[in-house]
Design a protein that fits this description.
Layout lengths: L7 H49 L12 H37 L9 H5 L14 H12 L2 E4 L12 E5 L5 E7 L8 E7 L4 H10 L3 E6 L5 E6 L12 E8 L2 E8 L4 E8 L7 H19 L1 E7 L3 H4 L5 H9 L2 H15 L3 E5 L3 H13 L3 H13 L9 H11 L5
Parallel strand pairs: 7-10, 10-11
Antiparallel strand pairs: 1-5, 2-3, 3-4, 5-6, 7-8, 8-9
Helix pairs in contact: 1-2, 6-9, 10-11
Length: about 400
């Protein structure tokens, strides 16, 4: 603190943020180990299948003095795929060993200026490098390091935070802020006004009676984002008059309401900009609006329990791969859990088993809705305890063939 000439509150904020980063780094490493182990398991299974295919191509099956071209090509393709799979398996095993060592020792590598930007210092002479000189790269890297500033609040400080004094002006969602310099001998004070469009009443309350922390983020386009952070106690879960099912898709949420008896009430699509620079904020605000309505109407909310780990590990074609990797399912579930805790709206996380197919075959034409809205209705009914029987076409055809004595 004395060495950096920082105020005590600024030093405490740095220490808290460092502890948070360390905790998150440990959790990320553990998730990576789990994902890598799953990938290793899948690769071993694929290698066994390729080995079986290779063994089926016995040399005695062909006259190898003049072997057929397709057999040679098939054998070479299998060998090439085996080499690639085994090489990938070896790299994943090495990565798991490295990650497990880091978790065991508790020593993690972390680059505050991003690894990608840091690596550009070694490729300045490359034609594709965005920087021509080392000084130009150093300035960009330092700007990126200092683009995120955290101010820690406390309930025993004025306005809930010593270094950032915020007060509500009374004009809708407009707040006036005074930011003090974190350095001990610097008397600089910056004043500005900003609108906080969501949780305005909570921010005003914690500025007056509680503690509130702030995060300032400097964007690359020159704009400044202010994120107030408050710690709320979860509200008491209320009894629900119906259930609002939500099905997330590329750029929109399909919602459908089922009453207490499981009957259809309404459905619609709620759009948000998934491909913008602030896609996370757009999804967050969209869910905030949904939970505000659900709280006022007394509805519960239901979402699917989806894991795309296995789907993302396979190739489904360029278009479907793009859609799968763009879906923010983890953030979507996290945002729902936070909104439900804050609003007291009951949240149900149900199985995603055949929700779209059941909705399409059973409810889409009957209710005159889209496939996604019908799936949302199935999710809502499933959360209310209603079951939908569905038999996949493959199982159905096998059962029908067995009944008439046909072997499949």
């Amino acid at each position: 603190m004395n060495k950096g000439n920082l105020k005590a509150r600024a030093a405490n904020a740095i220490l808290k943020e460092a502890r948070t980063i360390y905790t998150l780094a440990r959790e990320v490493k553990q998730v990576q180990i789990e994902n890598h182990n799953q990938k290793i398991k899948e690769l071993k299974s694929e290698i066994r299948e390729l080995e079986e295919q290779k063994n089926e191509l016995h040399l005695s099956d062909y006259n190898w003095s003049r072997p057929p071209k397709n057999a040679v090509k098939k054998l070479h393709k299998i060998k090439s795929m085996l080499w690639s799979k085994k090489d990938k398996l070896h790299r994943f095993i090495q990565s798991v060993q490295r990650l497990e060592k880091e978790v065991k020792t508790g020593i993690f590598s972390y680059c505050f200026g991003s690894k990608q930007l840091s690596s550009h210092q070694w490729t300045l002479e490359h034609p594709s490098s965005p920087f021509s000189t080392h000084e130009q790269w150093l300035k960009a890297w330092r700007d990126h390091r200092f683009r995120h500033v955290y101010f820690l609040g406390s309930h025993d400080e004025s306005c809930g935070c010593q270094l950032v004094q915020g007060t509500y002006t009374g004009d809708q969602d407009l707040f006036e802020f005074k930011v003090r310099s974190p350095y001990a001998k610097d008397k600089l004070v910056i004043s500005f006004r900003v609108r906080i469009p969501y949780q305005t009443e909570q921010v005003d309350y914690y500025q007056t009676y509680g503690s509130i922390s702030y995060v300032f983020v400097f964007k690359e386009n020159g704009s400044l984002y202010l994120h107030p952070q408050i710690k709320e106690e979860p509200k008491e879960i209320k009894s629900a008059k119906g259930c609002l099912g939500m099905d997330i898709n590329a750029g929109f949420l399909a919602v459908a309401l089922a009453n207490e008896n499981g009957n259809y009430v309404f459905s619609e699509d709620i759009y948000y900009d998934q491909y913008s620079a602030d896609a996370d904020t757009a999804l967050h605000q969209t869910l905030a609006a949904v939970y505000k309505i659900a709280e006022s109407e007394g509805w519960s909310v239901a979402i699917e329990d989806i894991s795309l780990r296995k789907k993302k590990s396979r190739n489904h074609g360029k278009k479907l791969n793009h859609i799968l990797h763009d879906f923010p399912y983890r953030k979507y579930r996290s945002y729902n859990e936070k909104k439900a805790s804050r609003s007291g709206v009951p949240l149900h996380i149900v199985s995603a088993f055949y929700t779209s197919r059941i909705g399409k075959e059973k409810y889409q034409n009957k209710l005159q809705t889209s496939t996604h809205q019908a799936a949302a209705f199935v999710i809502a009914r499933r959360a209310l305890g209603f079951t939908e029987w569905y038999e996949p076409e493959k199982s159905k055809s096998k059962r029908m063939n067995a009944n008439i004595g046909i072997r499949s």
